[in-house]
Write a structure and sequence with these properties.
Layout lengths: L6 E2 H8 L3 H9 L7 E2 L5 E3 L1 H15 L4 H9 L4 H32 L3 H11 L3 H16 L5 H10 L10 H14 L2 H19 L9 H16 L9 H10 L14 H18 L2 H14 L8 H12 L5
Antiparallel strand pairs: 1-3, 2-3
Helix pairs in contact: 5-6, 5-9, 6-9, 7-10, 9-14, 11-12, 11-15, 13-15
Length: 320
């Protein structure tokens, strides 16, 4: 033994703070083998057993399993590789814990039922391929076969969520809500109607503008009125409405407010009102906000104030 001190298993336990039972188990596993035996057959351990037990405790505290620890003990150079594998495993566990935390946070905030909780968990744990299929199905239902493919391809791309590999809780919660929206048949029908309106505008000679068109025109024309607090039902809003009707004429198949009178003017305003009311679905804006959270984009500008102002202004000016 080269003069090294030898310790009984009881002495080794006292020196290291590891129980006799645990040392015996490590010995049986080949992790801390005895250096020899006493004349009566009791196990004896050398100084290297002290170092081995210290290392085993450190590795166990770091989460390594017995198989990995045995690898390290058998071949010391393998420790960096084992550590790297352990880091990958810990990263996966952290992602799972973050996912669970995000779902539970959403459950608490929404006071979800058991059925809603199960659905949220399912949506949160979808694989990348499953998420892609869900989104593709939604986009196809909303835009598939509507207008020229090249025109709507950019729109579909801009409405595609890309959940990062290691999302934060807010992104997970946003994905769950967006996935629920994407599966809402009524919301799909709403998005389909908007796409068909855009396709009709394009067929009528209106240039295709992604995320533009009628809503963008309304926003641009009434933004100052909204900011200035102009009452939509007041006479001060009359010139704004007239200007807006002229600007929106191309979306109403050429009907210009300033060029028609009486019933024709009221009909044009009614058509614009009907279009805006059908488009004024808060779920669309919610989808875009959730999309921005998931993709790490800046929050989109809200179109709700402009739409609400214009709808009110048209309602009070349309004859019963």
């Amino acid at each position: 033994m080269n003069g090294d001190a030898l310790y009984s298993i009881g002495e080794l336990a006292r020196r290291t703070g590891v129980t006799v039972k645990t040392i015996r188990f490590y010995a049986d596993c080949g992790i801390v083998p005895p250096a020899g035996r006493s004349p009566v057959g009791h196990r004896l351990y050398g100084d290297d057993a002290l170092a081995r037990l210290d290392l085993v405790r450190a590795l166990r505290d770091l989460g390594l399993g017995l198989a990995a620890i045995r690898q390290v003990m058998d071949r010391a150079p393998v420790l960096p590789e084992v550590a790297a594998a352990q880091v990958e495993d810990l990263d996966m566990q952290i992602r799972v814990l973050r996912l669970r935390r995000a779902v539970l946070t959403a459950v608490a905030k929404r006071r979800a039922t058991p059925e809603e909780t199960a659905l949220m968990h399912k949506l949160a744990t979808l694989s990348e391929a499953e998420r892609r299929r869900l989104v593709d199905d939604f986009l196809d239902a909303a835009f598939g076969g509507v207008g020229a493919d090249r025109e709507f391809a950019g729109v579909m791309c801009s409405m595609t969520p890309e959940l990062p590999e290691d999302p934060d809780p807010e992104q997970v919660q946003a994905w769950v809500e967006l996935a629920e929206l994407a599966q809402d048949t009524d919301f799909r029908a709403h998005m389909r109607l908007m796409a068909e309106h855009q396709a009709a505008e394009r067929a009528g000679g209106v240039p295709f503008v992604p995320r533009g068109g009628l809503v963008a025109t309304v926003r641009d024309r009434v933004a100052q009125a909204v900011a200035a607090g102009v009452d939509a039902s007041s006479p001060q809003a009359d010139p704004i409405v007239s200007d807006l009707m002229s600007r929106c004429a191309r979306f109403l198949h050429g009907e210009v407010d300033g060029e028609v009178e009486g019933e024709d003017r009221a009909r044009a305003r009614r058509r614009l009102l009907d279009r805006l009311e059908s488009m004024n679905d808060p779920r669309r804006e919610r989808y875009l906000r959730l999309l921005a959270v998931i993709n790490g984009w800046p929050a989109p500008e809200s179109l709700q104030p402009a739409l609400d102002w214009t709808i009110l202004a048209l309602r009070v000016r349309v004859r019963p």
